[in-house]
Amino acid sequence: xxxxxxxxxxxxxxxxxxxxxxxxxxxxxxxxxxxxxxxxxxxxxxxxxxxxxxxxxxxxxxxxxxxxxxxxxxxxxxxxxxxxxxxxxxxxxxxxxxxxxxxxxxxxxxxxxxxxxxxxxxxxxxxxxxxxxxxxxxxxxxxxxxxxxxxxxxxxxxxxxxxxxxxxxxxxxxxxxxxxxxxxxxxxxxxxxxxxxxxxxxxxxxxxxxxxxxxxxxxxxxxxxxxxxxxxxxxxxxxxxxxxxxxxxxxxxxxxxxxx
Length: 260
What we know:
It contains twelve helices and no strands. The protein is an all-alpha fold.
């Protein structure tokens, strides 16, 4: 849902406070000495951040200021269309495939986590485009149309926009806190949980997640924040798939503390 203004002082405060919290952490992750510098992650992640923050975020502001004038790029409040929306769907489907690939070889809790992520990514991708309704233009079934706020074939529009604004802000802060804990406190050195490695050892990946957490603080940026989060997930899964193909220094752990 588009918010259309910056008049909500609480959301604006959360956005600015999140930027002040996550911004320095993102920069520290990018330039941290002693961390492996993977050229693909660094260059690809840098290009992604430049596209998000240097292009899409300013265009998002312009789009709202001009009354949704960039419909081709951002869609409109009344439907789930636009290149940003379709880009998010493409990234989520890519994430589902990468997570499913990891789930086939991972064991125990790790395999379960990758499997759940694959299913979740596929379901969210379907919801994002109302399961193809805006592509194939079928009529919304009457039982759904009567309760769906946008009269679309999806479930997420059964809930009021205010719920999603609060939920996005809460998830965004949880994401920021989790990334900072994993990247800077050595938490994963004690857990040794391989799915967290892309954040705890990466450069661009934690920065991308932190940026997504910031954008999730204001409904104004909801569509771009979804694209940012999907981008971060894909980069993390690509890195984890690459690590799987490299010889491991030791077997992957099962989310348990290391003995002192």
